């Protein structure tokens, strides 16, 4: 009968990071954003900011991100460190993190790892998007 409590525990863990939720804890994946920006300059991320206007090492994709959530500043933490990143793309299993910071946060530059994230004040993402008329989402943090 230990099988049922184990299943319930696994179900509760999976709910810690629901689709489109900008706060969570889950296994995230590493993504080659610097390479994507070079290879697809005319195919911007979901939020529409051109690649060349972004610090490609400090952006993230969020599963089921909405247009309203574009530009939200997230603090993402792993086994090694925490860093703030700007939500600009949709995709990934929970979150995609750029290879440019993955060594600092999770200690590797490929694969998947456990991480946790939360919405923080947009001032912590200043400079990630280099276009002057873009204002990150105010999130009341």
Explain the overall architecture.
The protein has 141 residues and is α/β, with parallel strands linked by helices. The chain has helices spanning 3-14, 33-39, 99-106; strands at 24-31, 59-62, 73-77, 82-90, 95-98, 112-119. A 6-stranded mixed β-barrel has the order 1-5-2-4-3-6. A hairpin with a 4-residue loop joins strand 3 and strand 4 (82-90).
Topology:
Blueprint lengths: L2 H12 L9 E8 L1 H7 L19 E4 L10 E5 L4 E9 L4 E4 H8 L5 E8 L22
Parallel strand pairs: 1-5, 2-4
Antiparallel strand pairs: 1-6, 2-5, 3-4, 3-6
Provide the helix percentage: 10-25%
Order of helices and strands: HEHEEEEHE
Q: Work out the number of β strands.
A: 6
Sheet with most strands: 6 strands, mixed, barrel
Contiguous uncertain segments of 5+ residues: 1-19
Q: Would you tell me the overall average pLDDT? A: 77
Question: What general form does the structure show?
Answer: globular
Describe the structure concisely.
With 141 residues, the protein is α/β, with parallel strands linked by helices.
């Amino acid at each position: 009968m230990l099988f049922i409590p184990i299943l319930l525990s696994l179900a509760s863990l999976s709910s810690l990071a629901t689709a489109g939720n900008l706060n969570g804890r889950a296994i995230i994946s590493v993504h080659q954003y610097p390479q994507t920006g070079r290879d697809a300059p005319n195919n911007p991320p979901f939020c529409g900011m051109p690649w060349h206007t972004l610090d490609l090492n400090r952006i993230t994709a969020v599963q089921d991100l909405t247009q309203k959530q574009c530009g939200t500043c997230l603090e993402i933490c792993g086994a090694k460190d925490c860093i703030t990143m700007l939500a600009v793309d949709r995709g990934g299993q929970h979150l995609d993190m750029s290879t440019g910071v993955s060594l600092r946060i999770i200690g590797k530059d490929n694969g998947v790892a456990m991480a946790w994230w939360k919405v923080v004040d947009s001032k912590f993402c200043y400079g990630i998007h280099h276009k002057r008329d873009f204002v990150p989402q105010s999130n009341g943090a």
